[in-house]
Amino acid sequence: MTMDGVLDQERRCREQAKRLGWTVGKVIIENDTSAFKRRVITLPNGRRELRTVRPGWRQMLDMLATERADGLIALDLDRSARDPRDLEDLIDVVEARVPRIPVDSVTGSLRLGNDADITMARVMVAVANKASRDTARRVAAARQRQAAQGKYGGGSRAYGFEPDGKTVRPDEAAEIVNAARAILAGVSLREVTADLRRRAVPTVYGRAWSTTTVRGMLLSARLAGFKVYKGQEVGPAEWPAILEESTWRALAALLDDPARRTTPGPAPKWLGSLIFRCWKCGGPASVGGGRAYNPTYQCREQTSHFRRVARPVDDLVAQVIIARLARPDAAVLLTDSPDVDAAALSREANAARSRLDVLARLFGTGTIDLRQFREGTAAARADLEQAESALATSAPRDALAGVAGRADAATIWDRLDLGRKRSIVKLLVDVVLLKGGRGGRLPGGGYFDPSTVQITWKT
Prior knowledge:
By secondary structure, this protein is an alpha+beta fold. Helices cover 44% and strands 11% of the residues. It is built from 14 helices and 14 strands. The strands form six sheets. A three-stranded mixed beta sheet has the order 7-11-14. A three-stranded antiparallel beta sheet has the order 8-9-10. Strand 1 and strand 2 form a beta hairpin. Helix 2 runs parallel beside helix 4, helix 4 (84-95) runs antiparallel to helix 5 (115-148) and helix 11 runs antiparallel to helix 12 (370-393). The protein is elongated, with a radius of gyration of 31 Å. The two termini are 60 Å apart.
């Protein structure tokens, strides 16, 4: 509600107080706070329950209960309570004192002076609650239909688009493309954020970027031209894509990688931390244990599975990768796989989404039973996941740009930041650390056996 409307309501309540001969001690305003909409909160007893969240209402009840106020005037019952729980809390407070706490309203609808008034208030709140639920259900259904049709549903302006939600804003789209390319090339999210802040590129709200806002913006499916409803992609949208679907899916897979550090803190120090895997359980390898000058890789799930001195493992993996990148034919690694047809994969993904929609309609009309619905949905989701996974791996391999196929690959590798190197490792090889003998003694202490590092090429 506009402030003019709020002030008018306050004026009318003050006039009512004057007619009753009451003195107004405190005005509590809850503007843009629903008397019906609920969310899950933690109660004092630890239980998680749905409640309307109304700090002003709770403050008012507390003032009445502690006798800091001795009466209540509201505009009307409907504006005060639409959740029966809220009304019952007010009734409890009103009836706790003798005589009852006087309650009045401008419209006359809020009266709790006797049992008949309380019964009528309960009926009226129940009716108002049903009306709110009916409205909420109709609005939700309309939004779902709108989402299924790929239409813009309103709301705050999304970065990269004009306020109409459908027209691309070129300068912001360019920033999105640059950020996506940088991260796919191995640049950290923090570095991308720092660059935006350094160049004073504003967010939609004119503020400086944070890693959280950059990540959230890049993970939005609308960048790939998809409509999302309640966190789920529901199909192609009416607005154009800023990023190719394959590029966006690769980006999303990278940003959602649990091994990727997204919180503030020091940059990774080791090439294979949380990338290399354990021979026994397949869990990620982390660096820890050992003396400060001789850290070791060990299984993050169970440290007894293996231990490998970290530096020689990183050096070995780097040498193998550099040797491959220095070959003249390594330039082919820059291109997408010739066996991957991104357009065909996009069609397969859309077909699977359409099947899910059809199955939902057939189940809703009773044409198919629950077993058929579940089996069909499982098959369609499997096809969708397979197509989306293939699209994610078909994106351009920006991490290799400028190094693959170069005779001086070793020199270039040394100049790359660790984030870019780690990106290349994840792109090209699977590294499994095996359990083995002690191997040869290292100059700095410890032992290393190269045969205990299993390197498998992905491409």
